[in-house]
Amino acid sequence: MKFVIAPDSYKGCLRSIDVCQYLSDGIKQVCPGAEIVQLPMADGGEGSVEAIILSSGGEFHKVQVHDPLGNLIEAQYGILGNSKTAIMEMASASGIELIDAKDLNPWLTTSYGTGEIIKAILESGIRDIIIGIGGSATNDGGVGMAQALGYKFENAVCGCNGGGLGDICGINADNVIPELKDCRIRVACDVTNPLLGDKGATMVYSAQKGADNDMQAKLEANMTNYANVLQKAGFADDCEQAGDGAAGGLGFGLRTLLGGQMVSGAGLIIEISGLVEHLQGADILITGEGCTDFQTAHGKLCAVIAQVAKEAGVPAILVSGALLGDLSALSDLFAAMFSTTSSPCSLEEAFAQTPANLVRMGRNIAGLI
Q1: Where is 242: in which H helix or E strand?
Q2: Taking the complete model, does pTM exceed 0.85, yes or no?
Q3: pLDDT digits over 96-142, tens only?
Q4: Which residues of 223-237 are buried (b: 16+ CB within 10 A; e: fewer)?
């Protein structure tokens, strides 16, 4: 038999590569001679670099950059097995998990480190870059990222952060690093928010990054000024494209200043991993995530993977940390849906039990088949 295991990470619990391994261990206990293809997956957010580099046989690289508050840290990017394409996560340099909760402040945080990773990749000779932009700590519209690449913003007296956007009155691209003009940038993003307004970057996401109501209003005014400056300077026609509001407006900055193309994070990762090819001759696909609810049916990674399997004629099984609410919308995609949790317990206990539960789940699936 041939099993293809292609899960997302179990957020806060296990990396996708670990989910693959535990399920595989369980399958082997029942079917020691089975062919098992492990494809750790991601949707462009945290864990994407690791998942794709492992799936493609690529290599990891370290680079020293500045974190959202300006401290020097070591970030990571990867080069795919084809040696021509780099993949990076903005969260590696500018992510919310890099800052203690008490220090979260989108007025001060910057995406400068994200630009430093892009610069390092370009200096290595790579001209094809995939950027995952989930999990940001910033609300600076990508101005920090742009400054790291040579853009100059006039009267940015508060620096390259959310608090400085209101003072910007012009932009100068004379010193932008020349390698950018020959670069293809694909932005792995499944967020559809525009830059401004009630559904924009500031009003939807800045509260979780540390903004209170008063700061939100000021940040929105600053972002509006920034968008107006870029439009007047001819860099942007509008700020209402799907994904402009992703990662505190970094999506807008990547699109307008770097010519970035927004693509489905899930779709791109599936393409790079070679999932379609690996499904040839497969008997079962197993995917999974930390928690499944009604949102999964609306384009989340596991549903997209299951659709690919369905089109290939391979039954898909979902193994989730939890199954919540009405999941009838998923019934046509999955042959079966299982929760790993074996008994009532706290979240902490569930996390601790997940490795053993995944091994058991792999064993049960193989035994049933």
Answers
A1: none
A2: no
A3: 989 999 999 999 999 999 999 999 999 999 999 999 998 899 999 99
A4: bbbbbebbeeeebbe
24 with 36: CB under 8 angstroms? Answer: yes
SS3 readout for 190-210: CCCCCCCCCCCHHHHHHHHHC
Name the H helices within the chain: 16-30, 48-56, 91-94, 112-123, 143-148, 201-205, 213-232, 250-257, 265-273, 275-278, 301-311, 347-368
- Phi and psi, residue 269, nearest 5°: -65, -40
All structural domains of the chain, each given as residue ranges with its CATH number in brackets, are 2-39+274-368 (3.40.50.10350), 48-265 (3.90.1510.10)
Q: Which residues of the chain have a pLDDT value below 70?
A: 44-45, 156-159
Neighbours of 78 (CB within 10 A): 24
pLDDT value of position 302: 93
Looking at residue 156, its pLDDT comes to 64
The span from the CA of 106 to the CA of 346, in Å, is 32
DSSP string, 25-43: HHHHHH-TT-EEEE-----
What own/partner pairs with CB < 8 Å and gap ≥ 24 does 357-362 have? 358/14, 358/19, 358/22, 358/23, 358/26, 358/319, 359/22, 359/23, 359/25, 359/26, 359/29, 360/26, 361/23, 361/26, 361/319, 362/22, 362/23, 362/24, 362/25, 362/26, 362/27, 362/29, 362/286
Other beta carbons within 10 angstroms of residue 177's beta carbon come to: 16
